[in-house]
Amino acid sequence: MRTTLLFHIAAGGLGLLSGFTALYATKGATLHRRAGTVFVYATLAMSFAGMTIAIVSNVAPAVNVPAAGLTAALVISSLTTLQETSVVTRWLNLASTLTVFAVGVVSLSFAVEAFANGGTRGGMPAFPFVMFGVVGLLAGAGDLRVLRSGPLRGRRRLTRHLWRMCFALFIAALSFFIGQAKVFPEPVRIMPLLATPVLAVLVTMFVWLWRVRTGRSLHRITHGRRNAGVPRTPLPAPR
Questions:
Q1: What angle, rounded to 10 degrees, do the helices at 30-56 and 2-24 form?
Q2: Rounded distance, CA 155 to CA 143, Å?
Q3: How far apart are CA 231 and CA 89, in angstroms?
Q4: Top-confidence residue, 170 or 215
Q5: Is the backbone of residue 235 left (phi > 0), alpha (psi -120 to 50) or beta?
Q6: 213 vs 68: CA distance, rounded Å
Q7: Do β-strands 120-121 and 124-125 pair in parallel, antiparallel, or remain unpaired?
Q8: How far apart are CA 57 and CA 164, in angstroms?
């Protein structure tokens, strides 16, 4: 398990670094695309390693297994949203749908148990169970619409990609900065300080979702990948 733990830590660190880079890089530019690709693979590696540790070593599996499954499913479905439809993407989307629905149902059942037992279940507060449950069911409902109606286009496509990738980064940041606060030196182990990068992900996600919704950056994001070799004036990332 020590090797798996070190692999999990390394993948998590790479995932956070690449995730924040992609989050604040110019959307559609080369740096954004490359950092996003690294984030997907690093996050998948981190999730599967974390799930293995949680199951084998019995490390809060009620929280860590759903967190790992939801995170992996979100990055996979976010990535396939931008790809052409194929047999592989269909199977990946189906697997993602089943995973997020399972996470949603199981997590909400744990939340009910937590509320019935004074707000905790197995020493864990109800909040993560509620969060994973709600997000899992919402993601599953979105997946069902895509499976039935086909690939999304325009703003809906970008919205799906953005919120899923950002929420996966949010889970990773929350798990590290808040869930592993004890690994930080005591002088910086201040909750408002550690919560800053976690909240920054959410704030930036909503900023970009608003920009896509209002069309302020729709053309730039949509055509950045297609016209990667064409000189252009980049749209500055939100600050």
A1: 150
A2: 16
A3: 31
A4: 170
A5: beta
A6: 29
A7: antiparallel
A8: 29
- In tens, the pLDDT along 96-119 reads 999 999 999 999 999 999 999 888
Encoded tokens for 148: 């039935």
Q: What is the pLDDT of residues 137-151, one digit of tens each?
A: 999 999 998 888 888
| Average pLDDT of the segment spanning 172-192 | 86
Report residue 200 as tokens: 């920054």
Task: Please give the span between the terminal C-alpha atoms of the chain, in angstroms, as a whole number.
Answer: 41
- Quote the pLDDT of residue 22: 93
> Which tokens sit at 3?
């090797």
HSE of 191, CA atoms in CB hemisphere, 13 A? 1
Chain-centroid distance, C-alpha 100: 12
pLDDT at 223 over 60: no
Of the chain, the percentage scoring pLDDT greater than 90 comes to 56
Residue closest to 73 by CA, chosen among 128, 126, 143: 143
From CA 13, how far away is CA 15, in angstroms rounded? Answer: 5
The torsion angle over the Cα atoms of residues 47, 74, 91 and 29, rounded to 10 degrees, is -100
Name the token pair of 226.
């297609």
Residue type, 93: N
Q: What's the pLDDT score for residue 215? A: 76
Which DSSP category does 175 fall into?
A: I
Sorted by where each begins, the domain ranges of the chain are 2-224
